Amino acid sequence: MKDLNLIHGVDISDVKEDLICYSYDASYAQGAIPELVAWPKNSDEISRIVKWATNKGLKIVPRGAGTGMAGGAIPINSRSIVISLERMIEVIEINPKNFTATVQPGVINGDFQKELLIQSLFYPPDPASLDYCTIGGNVATNAGGPRAIKYGVTRNYVMELEVVLPNGSIVNLGGKTVKRVVGYELKELFIGSEGTLGIISKITLRVLPEPEEVITLLISFKELENAGDCIPKIIGSGIIPRTLEFLDNTCLQIIEENKDMGLSLDSDALLLVELDGELTSIKRQAEKIVDIARKFKGETQIATDYYSRENLWQARRSISPCILKMKDKEKINIDIAVPIDNLSTALTKLKELSLNSDIPIVSFGHAGDGNIHVNILVKKGDEQHRQKGFDLVKKIFEIIVSLGGAISGEHGIGVTKKSYIDLQLSKKNIDLMRAVKRVFDPKEIMNPGKIF
Fold first, then answer.
1. Is residue 8 scored above 90 in pLDDT?
2. What is the distance in angstroms between the CA of the first residue and the CA of the last residue of the chain?
């Protein structure tokens, strides 16, 4: 269907097959089938769609690649239009002198990183879905990734945003200077806002020079607690790794069943540690990490060439796809974050919950910054068992909050976690957030029903 009078030149569809495709994302959330889906190619088209949809009384759901794990990009009202930004894929400018790049929101993270490498530049945020997820979606959820321990998350690289507001007007927020103190920094509100305040239509990012060298270490532990205790010791030694990833024994079993990568199933946990920088310096750091790991009974393998490193990372990246291949199980996926001095306690409690409930819990993730991805594996098609899995979700969140942690480190709240948000935030905090939402979106049309 095309309405050439009201949205001339914009691709828009009411074909059932199209609508079904945009009613779900990578989460377990169940969405509604929207009334329409539109594919704008620039900011002006987004603005015209928003104005048209508002006049029609439709709710607006912005969407990137649909790789989100919290249901943030699905419509929950059938009177909705999904605005998919997947065709806005232009890298507008790479400025190697100012170390900035400007992109449209549909640019794929991994593609962007490859383009930067041609000019020896580097964009650190690297979600596990980097080969599929979009920069716009990364900004909307403040995505992180393995390299966050050293380089930070998406928020640390966003310099300027062009945003289409719920009334269709276009504003520019932020700027291209590293230092900027000019009133309230409104762009910060949009980073991690999950499309509830407006639609991000253009992004200027800070980029860095490509690191000189990279070394990767794989450390295996017979006991989970030793792995958890080793992590703060590494960081406390003055070494900030590029990545510090964690895989539990259940992860290793699942990977080996599907990939046969030669991982040690005798290990209770693995740490995947990566260092980058000047070669002599990171070699010294690697030696120091080996010594620290040895004190916690950890055995270390070192990979210095590209192919050896990629082989180790293949194991880490294959976890989620391997879980999805399990014919008799489905996963309830959550991500949590704790202060790293409580990481060992959190991991131990997750293991206890799994044993006591007799429900497998697969834990892996970004141990260096305390962000763990927790996958509760329930019997496929068994609603009673599924409910037991959701009972575990609440218990896990309660434990994490009691340890000073967060119920989401990078996935966001969306619809899957909004019923738990009061475990984390006070009523005053939530009221302030709602007030911000009303300022930008008084008619409650922009991605309604998310977060709150």
1. no
2. 33
